[in-house]
Amino acid sequence: MLPQVARAQAIGGQPQPPEVTPPPAATEPTVPSGGLAGLFSPDRATLLGDFGSLRTTLGQAGITFGLETIDETFGNVTGGYKQGATANGLTMFSIGLDTSKAFGWEGGTFNLSTLWIYGPNFSNGYLGTLQTNSGILASPSVRVWEAWYQQQFAGGRMDVKIGQQSLDQEFMVSQGASVFLNTTMGWTAVPSFDLYGGGPAYPLSSLGVRLRAEPTDALTILAGVFDDNPPGGSFFNDSQLRGPERYGLGLDLGTGALFIAEAQYAVNPPPPPAPAGSPPTPPSGLPGMYKAGAWFDTAKFPDASSYSPYADGRVTSYHWHNYGLYAVADQTVWMPRPDGPTSVSVFGRPVFAPSDRNFLDFCAVAGVLLHAPLPTRDNDTFGVAFGYANVSDRVNSIAPTGPAFSGVYTPLRSGETLIEVTYQAQFAPWLTVQPDFQYYWMPGGGIANPNVPNTRVSNEALFGIRTTIQF
């Protein structure tokens, strides 16, 4: 029987490489004055500060680095295959080189990021969902994530990036959705299931070239071409732990090419910085960002009926090429003061793919965020989001035949609906703590529960908490 749930269990979308911004001033102490209180100063960007002037010294040579850990615990109190809880985590290290500072080459940047992924896959072991509960879940490993060089042109209005890239860092991104922990709020469920290996997205990446152009302050165009198969295996054999790919070093280029393009339009973009000594220029209105994009894959893809349990492990037929369409909207809808922290914003993102060759033919997320929800908590965010993933009707198109399926409870698949409620609390620029609640209707689109004969996996309620530390 071909796998029907596991394709998205190891693909996430929320992780961002730790910041490799210019180092803090050399006067920042490694251990700040004021004891423990000094660690939580709003002026302290990282837990370890300047590393005894190491950041400043390297920064003068154009070298910057970042180290970040994300640890979380999730447990389901109802539903799923079974009830329980697990802990897992991710440590990311990134290093960047500014070629202008390093050896006088203007506009160039080298970047290398690595991942250490640890802990069990809670969604795979307990839930069986299409929209996995956490964007950092993946096969435990230590691996290279991204390794690329970027060169700017035209005064920064154009740049080209070449090398190993993870598309969820630039394409299909909703700033509002990225606050949430569920995987589909990052790299969405449709490409996670419908592309080879879930596509070049965390924890995977692919060799490729990406071009960015900014013809106006409001309009940005992204386009690129990438290897479409990061793990390098067949469509239904997409292990992340095969050969050199377990270390992020696989360069299989024999499957096909993935083309992707996106147009971004900013409404009321932030004004340019005011001259020194002048008051900041207020925004012209409520800011928003609107995006539209598409991808096209040149490889061959199995017919969606091949996902049916009644296909009995057979690929019924193939289709040449695959594609998808998406749109993203992030809009601030209320801001009592232009210079204040409080605001309300909304977001939405539908994604479409043809139903004849894809397990999922549609997914969507939408939500609302309240920034600075409490007095004195200017950097906190409260949010509620919804997610939906729809199983293609063609998955259910093969009828049961033969004695092998007599008496086997195999319900038809439909759609899975999710609600997530989260609160992101920033206790220091380097420390956030995020309690989270998620509830699923029709987990897996209505899959059978292997532990309770003749029943579906029941609706699931789960609680979790994530801690993020920037070192």
Automatic annotation (TrEMBL):
Compositional bias ranges of the Pro residues kind: 15-26
Short name of one Pfam family: OprB
GO biological process: carbohydrate transport
Source organism superkingdom: Bacteria
Region (Disordered): 1-36
Any GO MF annotation of the entry: porin activity
InterPro entries in the record: Carb-sel_porin_OprB, OprB_Porin, OprB_sf
GO cellular component annotations of the record: membrane
Transmembrane segments: none
Similarity annotation: Belongs to the OprB family.
Protein name per the record: Porin B carbohydrate-selective OprB
Species for this entry: Acidisphaera rubrifaciens HS-AP3
